[in-house]
Amino acid sequence: MNFRRLAYAVSRLVTLLFRRRYRVPVGQIPLVRVDVPVTGLPPHLKDFTIGVMSDLHLGALVDPEYIRAAAERLAAERPDLIVVAGDFVSEAAAVPLLAEVLAPVRDAWGVLCHEPDFADRVAERHRVAVQISGHSHGGQVRLPFIGPPLLPPLGRRYVAGLYRAPFCQVYTSRGLGVAHLPLRFLCPPEISVLRMAEGMECPASPEGR
């Protein structure tokens, strides 16, 4: 049995023992507002807003009603565009739930670059201003003075928030769902609204893990 199958089996066992799926009351889901400065932003994109959801992980560990409530809350913000940055389900049996839970944001776009660390592979000629990603869950568990003890491959540099990569900016959402265990610690979920603004681009460097 490989590690992924073992981790999934353990997560199912924990869920059965605790008889609960991960959820957060919709009023307690952090709505993160971020201004994203872009040098030379075209005038017609000034104040353009992008709503972001990521890492739904529908399945045994995540309550689908919680994801739908988060989608409704994000839709109520009326951003100009909504993107869902990957990891829709954790198991094939959850695929039929997607249409229902994402109905409030049915015009949302999927994002091609789920893993944030791919930002290091963006070249200047690609002319990418902002990459929107998920994948890391912000660590899902963050220990005081240490940070996240475990991070997935391609999610170890740009862990959560807005960063400057070599030739683009990258925003990494902490996401909504969970993987392996139905819990988060010092790392709440989020939905986000990014506002495009003219200005000097983000100077923040990656965590470099």
Summarize, please.
The chain is an alpha/beta fold.
Strands, helices and their partners?
Layout: H1 3-18, E1 31-38, E2 49-53, H2 64-76, E3 81-84, H3 98-101, E4 109-110, E5 130-133, E6 161-164, E7 169-172, E8 191-198
Parallel strand pairs: 1-8, 2-3, 3-4, 5-7
Antiparallel strand pairs: 2-8, 6-7
CA distance, first residue to last residue: 28 Å
Q: What is the domain tally?
A: 1
Derived from helix and strand composition plus strand pairing, the structural class reads alpha/beta
Oligomerization status of the protein chains: single chain
β-strand percent reads: 15-25%
List the total number of helices: 3
**Strands, count:** 8
Low-pLDDT stretches: none
- Rg, alpha carbons: 17 Å
Share of helix, binned: 10-25%
Mean pLDDT: 89
Query: Major sheet: size, sense and barrel closure?
Result: 5 strands, mixed
- Helices and strands, in order, run as HEEHEHEEEEE
Molecular shape: globular
Q: Biggest sheet, strands in spatial order?
A: 1-8-2-3-4
